[in-house]
Design brief:
With 126 residues, the protein is an alpha+beta fold. It has four helices and five strands.
């Protein structure tokens, strides 16, 4: 199970290295506090810092709203929202943390499967 800054860095770095179209990777706790993360150097931010926090909070709220139905439909594996300029992925790491990733919209469809494999390799889902 991921439990310290070194583990967070390893996961962050592994995801950033999957594809140059990865823009932003962060690990959040349930309250939306950033535990670890960052963005790729040299990319243009589309949102202000305040807007980024609001977007993250929206993704968290949506994720936890969806989890209300997990007893009936199963646990969520990930959620993806596609916008004109980015794709946004929300992935549960464990009962207390979520992974929030943004990419360029044209990222390869296999990206999310690769992220899920990395998550399993880091034993984050236990």
């Amino acid at each position: 199970m991921i439990s310290n800054i070194k583990d967070y860095y390893t996961l962050y770095n592994s995801i950033m290295n999957l594809d140059e179209k990865t823009r932003f990777v962060t690990i959040l706790d349930k309250s939306g506090t950033v535990v670890f993360g960052g963005q790729r150097e040299g990319i243009k931010n589309y949102l202000s810092e305040t807007e980024q926090k609001k977007s993250i909070q929206h993704a968290l709220d949506s994720w936890f709203l969806r989890s209300e139905f997990s007893e009936k439909i199963g646990d969520g594996k990930y959620a993806m929202a596609k916008y004109g300029k980015i794709k946004r992925f929300t992935i549960p790491l464990n009962h207390a943390h979520l992974l929030y990733i943004t990419t360029e919209p044209e990222i390869n469809d296999s990206f999310i499967e690769d992220v899920l494999k990395l998550k399993e390799a880091h034993e984050i889902n236990k």
